[in-house]
Amino acid sequence: MTPAMTRPGGRSAKVAVAVHAAVVELLAEGAPLTVPQVAARAGVNATSVYRRWGDVAGLLADTALVRFGTSSPVPGTGSLRGDLLAWGAALVEEAGRPEELALLRAAVAAGPADPGAPEGFESACSACLTGRSTQAETILAAAQARGEETPTPTRVLDHLVAPVYLRALFGLPAPSVEVLVELLVERLAAPATARATPGARR
Amino acid sequence: MTPAMTRPGGRSAKVAVAVHAAVVELLAEGAPLTVPQVAARAGVNATSVYRRWGDVAGLLADTALVRFGTSSPVPGTGSLRGDLLAWGAALVEEAGRPEELALLRAAVAAGPADPGAPEGFESACSACLTGRSTQAETILAAAQARGEETPTPTRVLDHLVAPVYLRALFGLPAPSVEVLVELLVERLAAPATARATPGARR
Predict the structure, then answer these.
(1) Model pLDDT for residues B140-173, shown as the tens digit of each residue
(2) Pairwise CA distance, residues A165 & A162, whole Å
(3) Which residue in A39, A74, B82, B89 could disulfide with B77, CB within 3.0 to 4.6 Å?
(4) Averaged confidence pLDDT in chain B
(5) Subunit contact A109:B112, Cβ cutoff 8 A
(6) Which ranges carry the Tetracyclin repressor-like C-terminal domain (chains A, B) (predicted)?
């Protein structure tokens, strides 16, 4: 059983919500993250936290999975450009919030894989991008169903998610989502004739 | 005086080399970074380290500035494509090395700016990208001098450096530098007629 598979609304789900909130709060405060501190902030027994999440790596991974998997939902504007613009803007806003940025930083600091993490826990790092990849695939599948030309999910990760996250992590100003999306939609997805019209160049 | 401005070959420069190496080694070992530990590993007095670098944030920033500013030098192949391919491949290799990756992670974890750092010290975060920006500008200026069309330095940061660094930081496989560079050279830099030829599409 993975921690994310608990029933919504039940006791177990309420504990998860409190624990995830405690992790994010402590990180944003710059407090060192330990299981007893998370348990105290969430108002639950440390024993339950150890049993369910294993350790700090497990806590981080599950928090990142839930936080970055459910936030910034797929917009459904009816066009690839519209969806990428709305979703990209949501990513920029999210990566600029102290709590989400602290969670991203902590996940990066924790490394790609924690050998001490119990089996079944995704590493905090990959957990940050799992939800994003799924959302990108959803946006692209909807565009394809409408008959639109699309870039690959990897292109969306490399040329929309990567600039937004890298600039946030390194303290640079956020990129213009319009410019990033123009590249994905007009230069990578549209047919050559559309790309060659002077109006499409920038 | 910034720490990077010491004369090469002098006593002061030798101390800096030993201290930078100690920082990178300790990070790669996963050891907690403290001034006394860095001093001990480098074989210098902790007092000298405090006086010159201030604290751990100053140590990190100066190490990142030197390490990421002097490594992966600009290749000079005679073409924009050739330079970006060689430089991008060097960035991929570097971001995959345990020492450089540990330094990137530590810089990200340290945040965009440390209010406790003494004035004149660049934050470790921005220091990681300072050298990269300078190198990108050098490559682009050389291409412009040859009469080549070029993307902007920001495009190179967003679409070559960002995917390489983000994937390394989050533990994903490295991107194909050829694919990233094709986008920068053929889709963003070349004139529309070149972009419209079927052979240039992918």
Answers:
(1) 999 999 999 999 999 999 999 999 999 999 888 8
(2) 5
(3) B82
(4) 84
(5) no
(6) 74-182
Q: How far apart are alpha carbons B133 and B122 in whole angstroms?
A: 15
- What domains can you pick out in chain B, each with its CATH number? 3-200 (1.10.357.10)
| Minimal-distance CA residue of chain B relative to A177 | B158
Q: What is the DSSP letter of B120?
A: T
Q: Which residues, in sequence order, are CB contacts of B88 under 8 Å at separation 6+?
A: B160, B164, B177, B180, B181
- Chain B closest CA to A74's CA: distance in Å? 22
Q: Are A148 and A80 in contact (CB under 8 A)?
A: yes
Can you state the angle between helices B56-70 and B98-109, rounded to 10 degrees?
130
- DSSP codes of every residue in B149-189: ----HHHHIIIIIHHHHHHHHTTPPPPPHHHHHHIIIIITT
Per residue in A63-91, pLDDT (tens digit) is: 988 888 776 678 889 999 999 999 999 99
Pick from A81, A68, A97: nearest CA to A160: A81
Residue-wise pLDDT for B25-35, tens only, equals 999 888 888 99
